[in-house]
Each structure stands twice: as C-alpha cells, then as structure tokens.
Design a protein that fits this description.
Helix content is 40%, strand content 14%. The protein has 210 residues and is an alpha+beta fold. α5 (155-167) crosses α7 (192-201).
Length: 210
C-alpha cells in the first residue's frame, strides 16, 4: 500500500475502505516504515483496509501524521485515541503530541469490561513493541474490542491474539521485559483475566500472555 502523495491517497480511498486502528509514537531504536516510503520518526498510525467489492483483499499499513490526517479527512473519521505505555514522556520526544492515552473508539461512553481492557492492552502492546506491521487478524481483533469492549471478550478473540503472540515464540511479558531492558520505562500490565478465559475454554492451549 503506497500512499506517498495526496493524489495517491485520494485515489486509494475510492478503491478501498480504510479504518484507523491504532495511534502511538515510535520508541527510540525502533524502525517502522510508512506507506509513504519514509521511516517513521514520531507519531504514527496503523490503518487497516479492504478492497470495496472484494473484502478478501485486505491488509494493514503504517503512516505518519501528515498522511494519516489526510486519510482521516478523506474518510471523515475521527482518529483513535493515542496509546502510550511509557510512564513518562521523554524530554526529547518533541513532535509526538500529547493526546489522550489509552485506546478505544471515540464516542464510546460505556465502561470497559475488565477482561476486554486487558485484551485491548495486550493487542496495543504487541503493535507498539513489534517493528513489523501486524496483519489483518490482529487489527480486526483490536477493532472488535474497541467496538464491543463493554462486553467480555469472546474466547476465540482471546485465542486469536494468543496465536499471534505464539508466532514470535515469546510471551508478551518477555517482549515487555526486552523493551524495558533497552531503557524504556513501561507501565505494568496484567493479563490474568484473559489468561483465565483462555484456560477455561482452551485448556490445551499454552498462554503467551504471561
């Protein structure tokens, strides 16, 4: 998905349906590539897309704030809330913005179910920590928990996220420990509720959350 200039982005929204899935900032030492061909250096977005009339043709891509703002204007959609798991804003992190932290679709006034909140945090942390672009299954899981997070997560959605973690052969807590060892002061997260859902419904599946 190449979106270097405004004309190209305008052309793309005629062919594809876009959803802004995630917004955050680059960690020092990370390298994530934008659909514009640039290496992202500050605030960035993750979008999912499906071809109109051919939803099986789907994918995801990263882009920086300029391209993201243009996409949001073209599709007339509000941005997702900014996810930031760091305890403190680095003094040199200018340009990343100071928007609201957390995740979820704007306008959803219902309180989060505690287990759904854990699942949302897990998905956001995977996207935040991985350099590579997550595939459609993970983006779809985040879209679902953002839309219906006032309900407990469905067990197969928890399993879907766990399966994505399994591909990397590291637990989420191991991933977070690796980020902390690089000097990034992350908040503490718990996943006991989604672990319980996984264990109850899929007792033979190994959890990669803890």
């Amino acid at each position: 998905m190449y979106c270097r200039n405004p004309e190209r982005r305008t052309e793309l929204v005629q062919k594809y349906d876009f959803v802004p899935v995630f917004r955050s900032r680059i960690l020092e030492g990370q390298q994530k590539n934008s659909c514009t061909g640039d290496v992202l250096s500050s605030e960035y977005y993750l979008f999912s897309y499906k071809e109109k009339g051919n939803p099986e043709n789907e994918g995801t891509f990263y882009c920086g704030k300029v391209a993201a703002d243009h996409f949001l204007e073209l599709i007339n959609v509000a941005p997702p809330k900014r996810f930031d798991p760091l305890k403190f804003e680095p003094a040199h992190a200018g340009g990343t913005g100071s928007g609201a932290t957390g995740a979820g679709r704007p306008g959803n006034a219902r309180a989060d179910d505690p287990a759904s909140k854990q699942l949302r945090n897990a998905i956001n942390l995977i996207i935040f920590c991985w350099d590579q672009t997550p595939g459609p299954p993970l983006a779809t899981a985040l879209e679902i928990v953002d839309r219906y997070g006032y309900n407990p997560p469905r067990p197969h959605e928890v399993k879907r996220v766990n399966s994505n973690l399994k591909k990397g052969n590291r637990t989420l807590q191991e991933i977070l420990t690796g980020v902390r060892k690089k000097g990034h002061d992350l908040k503490e997260y718990r996943f006991d509720l989604i672990n319980a859902i996984l264990e109850e419904r899929y007792p033979d599946v190994t959890s990669f959350f803890e």
